[in-house]
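Form 7-S
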Amino acid sequence: MSATLPDIPLSEIPGYAEVADIVAGRPLHKFGGVVSFLYHRQADHPRGAVWPIIELVMQEQVAPHRKIGFRFHGVRDVQYSGWGSIVGLYFQSISERGWEDARFEVGDYEQACIHLFCYDISVYDPSRVA
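Output:
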C-alpha cells in the first residue's frame, strides 16, 4: 500500500448501485467477515489470454449479516492468509506505475490478511447470483 495514494471509495467501484442499499453509506469495515474466497486460475480474458479472477464475499459482523461480493479481474501477486475477517479493505489506483496488466492494488490496512494487484474490480450482491 502506498501512503501517498488516495483510496478509491467503494461508491466509485463498478456495480456499486447493486449494493448501495446493502452498504447504506456505512464504512466497508462493517463488512469484515469473509464468507468465501474463490480463485479462478484461468477464466476468459477479453483478448484470449489467461485471466485469473478472485471472488471475495464478505458479510456484516452484526445482524442482519448482509453480504457484498467483490470480483478482482486479472489478478497477480495474491497473498491471502485465509483467516475469517478482513477489517480494513482498501482499493488504490496504481495506473501511474504504467503496468500493462495491473491497475489496482487491494489490501487490508488492519491485519494484512489480503493483498493483490489486479486489472479491474467490481462489486455485486451475492444474493442475486444464481
